Amino acid sequence: MQVLNSGSTVEEFRFEVVGPCAAWTTVEPESLSLYPGASGTATLRLRPPRAPEVAPGETPLGLRVIPVSDPEGTVVPERTIDVLPFTEITAELVPRSTHSPWRGRHKVAVDSRGNTPVTVVLATQGISERTRLVIEPVELTIPPGQAKFADVEVRPAHWLWRGTPVQHPFQVVVAPRPEPDQAPYAPVVVDGSYEQKAILPAWLPRALIAAVLLIGMLVGLWYALLRPTVRSAAREAITPEAVESAQTRTTRTAARPRAGAGGRRRRQRPAARRDLGGAGEPW
User: Fold this and answer.
1) pLDDT given for residue 165 in this prediction
2) Checking DSSP bridges between strand 131-136 and strand 97-100, what pairing results, if any?
3) CA separation for the pair 153, 168 (Å, rounded)
4) What pTM, to 2 d.p., does this model score?
5) How far apart, in whole angstroms, are the C-alpha atoms of residue 135 and residue 101?
6) Distance between first and last Cα of the chain
7) How far, in Å, CA of 62 to CA of 1, rounded?
């Protein structure tokens, strides 16, 4: 930028950048001292960061020129600059590895660090025939400075009932979709793994053997100690007094009269005599 001192005295001019570009624009030098009728040059250097906050498109740029001796004579020349769009993404698999007998569940976090919306397509690679990998959804549209997630589920083709765990490595490819007039972007590849564990735990056979041994010990204890003790106590309980008491109860029970069919015996009443009043006379 050319600065002319149109005054009659030596003047110092200070420069200040204004507008959305002020945070990433510098002026060299920051001030100029000019004689009357002389001119000088100030250079503006624009270094826009690769960040989502810098919006693409036409952006106004202003430079405030302040005469130190006459601040009211400040002028602000303006122009516009064109900030180009750019695309940058990062991806991360959370968690990196899983352990389960049935399936592995992950999430792919895709961050858009560019200054324009981006659409990414997710795919898999490095999958063996022993696993099936499902991604939902397979396409994400991410605004600048934001992140979105996709579910990744790894399923084994066959169950593992017992034995050593099996490792299933896999890769998820995240590729930005280019515009029709753009070259393809380099995809981002994230690695993950799923450890398929056995359905039956490794300690189960040892636990079953221990249970069988414990049951055998209890049975042996019964036959060796408890059963003889019970038999000895039963023999000691059979005494002559107990036998005699049992026989007495049996005799008394047998001596009791038995009830008839109705439960009681009916007594026959004697037949009533008729008073005939005399022999041969009718009653």
Assistant:
1) 86
2) unpaired
3) 12
4) 0.63
5) 20
6) 169
7) 11
Residues in the chain where the model's pLDDT stays below 50: 260-266, 268, 270-283
CA distance 281 to 99: 123
14 C-beta neighbours (distance < 10 Å), count: 16
SS (H, E, C) the chain: CEEECCCCCCEEEEEEEECCCHHHEEEECCEEEECCCCEEECEEEECCCCCCCCCCEEEEEEEEEEECCCHHHCECCEEEEEECCCCCEEEEEECCEEEECCCEEEEEEEEECCCCCEEEEEEEECCCCCEEEEEECCEEEECCCCEEEEEEEEEECCCCCCCCCEEEEEEEEEEECCCCCCCCCCCEEEEEEEEECCCCCCCHHHHHHHHHHHHHHHHHHHHHHHHHHHHHHHHHHCCHHHHHHHHHHHHHHHHCCCCCCCCCCCCCCCCCCCCCCCCCCCC
Distances from the Cα of 27 to the Cαs of 10, 15, 76, in angstroms?
Answer: 21, 7, 14
Name the residue type at position 52: P
CB-facing half-sphere around the CA of 121: CA atoms within 13 A: 7
CB 61 within 8 A of CB 81: yes
3-state secondary structure 139-179: EEEECCCCEEEEEEEEEECCCCCCCCCEEEEEEEEEEECCC
Q: Which residues pair with 67 in a beta bridge?
A: 13
* pLDDT at residue 277, as a whole number: 42
Radius of gyration of the chain (CA): 53
Chain position carrying tokens 């439960």: 263
Q: Is the peptide bond before 95 cis (omega within 30 degrees of 0)?
A: yes
Length of the chain counted residue by residue? 283
